[in-house]
């Protein structure tokens, strides 16, 4: 294989004719640049779309089927995506082949609904590429050593893509999603959110582990272990986040890079302030001490500060920290 890149397309990147046209343009450019490529796909769309995982699961009652059968029906969305995209590529002059996780050689643990990748036998993928095909791999799934279908955790298509990048020694992993990279906060909460253009693995993992929804944390761990550069981007623009061992040298000690939030229960939300050595940001500590936000608990760490608040206060709190310190 020549220079190898893994491209992962999320479910929202496969929904429309415009999206599929853009994917063809991406693939054509990668080929022009002399790259061999592997594609990983998620199920198309979200709940309500015909073949999304959540929509498929509405056809069953959990009490009436086994975990193995839940894994089977849940794996169908990615299989459908892979065949649809393969058909589209073939129509546009590219040779492609759709492969399930098991067919691609992904071996997992025996936990049907929350498995981990143990090994990848990449021989079928390599031979497909050598024969001129573009392998399109179903994300989020693999097979046990006995051949049973298993699922990775939610968001597991990112993990599939990162693990394939690691085992097959890819030069880069590009993740296409519905937002232009990792942002300073959730753009659905604050429209003033900005894209973080460069992050090191450590800060990217802090964001992913604390409510950031753009990339699965385990994908970052795979990439860091094997020093694989990740680019997170959208089909609709050129803005992107690059994750690597270097990051952004302008993120000096004390600087805040991101504010995240997620629900703890029906009444409480956790807001997490993430940055570089926040112990050195005296202004931030003073602000927390004097500003009345009805904080129920507060935890300080070197690169993050966690605040637990009533849901009614959380969005205002997040906005205050974002607008005053980022």
Quaternary state, please? single chain
Distance between the termini: 43 Å
Question: Architecture of the largest domain in CATH?
Answer: 3-Layer(aba) Sandwich
CATH fold name of the largest domain: Carbamate kinase
Q: State the CATH superfamily name of the largest domain.
A: Acetylglutamate kinase-like
Order of helices and strands: EHEHHHEEEHEEEHEEHHEEEEHEEH
Question: What is the general shape?
Answer: globular
Our count of domains comes out at 2
Are there runs of 5+ residues with pLDDT below 50, and where? Answer: none
Question: How would you describe the overall organization of this protein?
Answer:
Residues 4-233 form the Aspartate/glutamate/uridylate kinase domain. Pfam families: AA_kinase. InterPro entries: AceGlu_kinase-like_sf, Asp/Glu/Uridylate_kinase, Aspartate_kinase_CS. This is aspartate kinase. The protein is an alpha/beta fold. The protein has 2 domains: 3-178, 3-Layer(aba) Sandwich (Carbamate kinase), CATH 3.40.1160.10; 256-325, 2-Layer Sandwich (Alpha-Beta Plaits), CATH 3.30.70.260. The chain is 33% helix and 25% strand. It contains 10 helices and 16 strands. The strands form 4 sheets. The protein has an 8-stranded mixed beta sheet with strand order 3-6-2-1-9-11-12-10, with helices on both faces. Strands 13-14-16-15 form a 4-stranded antiparallel beta sheet, sandwiched between helices. The radius of gyration is 21 Å and the shape is globular.
């Amino acid at each position: 294989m020549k220079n190898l890149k893994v491209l992962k397309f999320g479910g929202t990147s496969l929904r429309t004719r415009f999206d599929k046209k853009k994917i063809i343009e991406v693939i054509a450019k990668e080929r022009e640049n002399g790259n061999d490529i592997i594609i990983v796909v998620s199920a198309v769309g979200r709940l309500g779309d015909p073949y999304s995982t959540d929509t498929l699961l509405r056809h069953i009652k959990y009490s009436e089927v086994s975990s193995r059968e839940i894994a089977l029906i849940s794996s169908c969305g990615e299989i459908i995506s892979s065949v649809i995209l393969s058909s589209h590529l073939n129509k546009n002059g590219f040779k492609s082949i759709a492969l399930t996780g098991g067919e691609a050689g992904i071996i997992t643990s025996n936990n049907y609904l929350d498995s981990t990748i143990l090994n990848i036998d990449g021989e079928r993928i390599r031979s497909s590429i050598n024969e001129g095909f573009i392998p399109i791999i179903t994300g989020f799934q693999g097979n046990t050593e006995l051949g049973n279908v298993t699922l990775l955790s939610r968001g597991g298509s990112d993990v599939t893509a990162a693990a394939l990048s690691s085992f097959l020694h890819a030069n880069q992993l590009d993740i296409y999603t519905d937002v232009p990279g990792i942002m300073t906060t959730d753009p659905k909460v604050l429209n003033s959110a900005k894209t973080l253009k460069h992050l090191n693995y450590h800060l990217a993992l802090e964001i992913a582990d604390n409510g950031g929804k753009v990339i699965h944390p385990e994908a970052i761990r795979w990439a860091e272990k094997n020093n694989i550069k990740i680019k997170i981007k959208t089909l609709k623009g050129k803005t992107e986040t690059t994750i690597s061992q270097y990051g952004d040298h302008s993120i000096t000690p004390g600087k805040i890079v991101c504010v995240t939030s997620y629900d703890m229960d029906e009444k409480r939300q956790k807001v997490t302030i993430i940055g570089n050595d926040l112990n050195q940001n005296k202004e931030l500590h003073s602000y927390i001490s004097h500003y009345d936000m009805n904080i129920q608990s507060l935890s300080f760490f070197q690169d993050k500060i966690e605040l637990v608040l009533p849901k009614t206060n959380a969005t205002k709190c997040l906005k205050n920290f974002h607008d005053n310190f980022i």
